[in-house]
Amino acid sequence: MEIRINNVTHIYNEHTLFEETALEDVNLSLDEKGIIGIIGKSGSGKSTLIQLLNALIVPSYGNVEIADFDIKKNMKVKNINDLRRKVGLVFQFPEEQFFNPTVREEVSFALKYFRYKNDRIHKQVSEALTMVGLNDSYLERNVFELSSGEQRMIAIASVMVFNPKIIILDEPTAGLDYRNKKKFMNLARRLRDRYNKTVIIVTHDVDMLNVIADHIVALDNGKIVLSGSKNEVFKNATLLHKHGLRVPKIVEFTGKVITEKGVILGRHTDVKDLIKDIYRNV
Amino acid sequence: MSDIIRINNLSFRYHNKFVFEKLDLSIRDGEWLAIVGPNGSGKSTLVKIIVGLLKFDGTLIIDNMPLSTYNIPHIRKQIGVVFENADDYFIGETVADDLAFALENLAYSPNEIEHMVLDIANTFKINDILDKDPHFLSGGQKQRVALAAALVTNPKILIIDDALAMIDENEKEEILEILDKLHRDRNLTIITITHNLAETYKADRMIVINNGKLIIEGPVKAVLQEDKIFNRIGIEIPFMVDLSIKLQLYGLIDHIILDMNEMVNTLWK
Predict the structure, then answer these.
(1) Is B238 an 8 Å CB contact of chain A?
(2) Are A71 and A55 in contact (CB under 8 A)?
(3) DSSP result, B115-145
(4) Nearest to B36 by CA among B199, B226, B175
(5) Cα dist from A266 to A206, A237, A271, B212, whole Å
(6) Do B238 and A249 touch (CB under 8 A)?
(7) How many CB atoms lie within 10 A of CB A206?
(8) CA distance linking residue A177 with residue B208, whole number of Å
(9) CA distance from start to end of chain A
């Protein structure tokens, strides 16, 4: 299965004085598997793109094919809830939206809203906590007294509770320290490898994407400027720089060594491997 | 150089648990101090104590005045604070209104206000967005406006509490350059609160706190060598620091090199 974005243009406040084109004639095909990173400066269209993927907004022109749904203008509203159960979206700083006192109530809120039966709610909440690396011992804890890393995981569990096929996360590591960032990186890998999910991550942390992502999409000014495997995308340092983006530090370093000293080092994601390579080449 | 902030024997409890217990810390006038620690280490609590938002036990002297109910208005004039979510603090409908707000409250004349707003807008290169609504700017522009608003009244101390976390690298480097110039030219005391070590490179001194305790302090490059401590408390070691420390183990360099060009030229002379 593929996620296909066909000739999508999205215009906010169309036909008004405040008209603003956020995406312009975007075409993109993505394998519905693996970890996909979306990068771009503020205002490049990243948030618009991910909101189109679960129909929070619909394209002004063109269509989006995702999880057997066809998202386009005037689509049937009755399908939207089903789509949102299959394509989960976690906003930036999702824990700021907590409003239930306990983990159990917070994670089960959407299930209750959709009138799931109690035994099913219990099972799915428990499974969602397991997916994010937590367990039932958290159920009666106060969400507001958890650490920031735990709160972020609970917020992700609140979306995973529907067991979506695709999960989209907007800046999931914002405000987290390294210990919690590593936990998130492990979670993304676990969702891909053990649960066979498609994980779409919007981030400015290209160093993290260099370690975990399979595919990168780079946006600027409402258009896709690059899309491909991380090696294909990150080898275009000059083009990315032109669009206000940078490559991972480790890639920047090996690129500089080739350009300025003519020494070819391998492609690495780990500094330890890079050091051995440097040792052999100095 | 005299101390602009002196903390003696400071203790603070939250839910009967010590966040800080008998903390001592001095910050020199004109110093750039980086306070580093993981989430929940007490960094932001310390900021709230310094600006008088939380009651504490111990002594806190700012600009030669002990922090007390009577002194808070004077002390707050000496401190500009910028937090991570600038959106929460914008007041004006335009950037110019926002920058002018504090000056109007301090009863500056319209001429003075215009002059001071333009001056700080020049410093942060935001002259071209003075008529824009600050809520609709990019993340980097918002933080430039927030920093300009914090500094428009010429405070002696600037506190940046994780304020650069959400900004892309290029923008962050430009903002740090501007702050470095203010630090050197105007003798501005800067306190950077962060868990990103790459934001500490321009600071004079770094202290690392964990569980409310000061665990190490010293010149930035000396503290950056302590990779085992950072690993233990869960602070990410930036690429250039990690590379430097490991290359030292291999005997290829003998000190931390933070500049990539310098590193390449040192390794391949």
Answers:
(1) yes
(2) yes
(3) HHHHHHHHHTT-GGGTTS-GGGS-HHHHHHH
(4) B199
(5) 19, 16, 12, 43
(6) yes
(7) 25
(8) 14
(9) 47
3-state helix, strand, coil in chain A (%, to 5): 45, 25, 30
pTM for the structure as a whole: 0.86
- Record the tokens describing residue B117, joined without a space: 């707003």
- Which letter, b or e, does each residue of A111-134 get, where b requires 16 or more Cβ atoms within 10 Å of its Cβ? beeeebeeeebbebbbebbebbeb
Tokens representing B7?
């903390």
A43, A210, B60 from B24: Cα distances, Å: 44, 41, 10
User: How many Å separate Cα A271 from the centre of its chain?
Assistant: 25
Distance CA A60, CA A28 (A): 16
Interchain proximity B39–A260, CB inside 8 Å? no
Sheet with strand A2-12: strands edge to edge:
A20-31, A2-12, A61-66, A69-71
B170 contacts on A by Cβ (under 8 Å): 244, 246
Option in A41, A252, A279 nearest B168 (CB): A41
Residue A52 Ramachandran class (φ > 0 left, ψ -120 to 50 alpha, else beta): alpha
Each residue's pLDDT, cut to its tens digit, for chain B (269 residues) gives: 699 999 999 999 887 888 888 899 999 999 999 999 988 888 888 989 998 889 899 999 999 989 887 888 888 889 999 988 788 888 889 999 999 999 999 999 999 999 999 999 999 999 999 999 998 888 889 999 999 999 999 999 999 998 888 787 888 999 999 999 999 999 999 999 999 999 999 999 999 999 888 999 999 999 999 999 999 999 999 999 999 999 999 999 999 999 999 999 999 98
Burial class (CB in 10 A: 0-12, 13-18, 19+), B114: middle
In sign, the C-alpha dihedral spanning A189, A195, A199, A203 is: negative
Name the one residue in this structure whose structure tokens are 């010149």: B219
Q: Residues, chain A, total?
A: 282
